[in-house]
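Section 3.1: Structural characterization of target chains.
Under the original work plan, the team committed to producing a structural model for every single-chain target entering the pipeline before any wet-lab resources were allocated. The record below documents one such target. The sequence was received from the expression subgroup and is listed exactly as submitted; it comprises 135 residues.
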Amino acid sequence: MKRIVTMMLAGATLAACGQPAPDRRTEPAASPVPDCGTFLLGQGEKVPADAATCLIDAAKAGRVTTLKVTSPTVEGDPIPVTYAARPDGRVDVTTDSRADNFGEQTISRETCSEPALTRDGIAFTECSDLLRVEE
């Protein structure tokens, strides 16, 4: 009897060896959104042309990307703006003016189309109405 149990255990072990191993792979982590840079500008400084071109080219090609620019108000308060190119070629522009001591102190977003490089930075042919995201 002992011999039969041993043979059964050996058979079960061999059978288990013939089974494929469970698939323990995980999905690869999603790649981060390509980035055109993050810039902290001083009074009178403009977005670097190569960073603006990065965003514009991505938007025209329907590639998702971001560009983050913080510029000071006349009084020196930092105003971060995030440009996010979308697959449809438009760009979401989110402005955080909560640090503006003389402004509305809100976060707002607008969706703009046809970005272009100008001597002053990035310009758009058309933008949606400004939407308050947070106050």
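The two ends are 80 Å apart (CA to CA).
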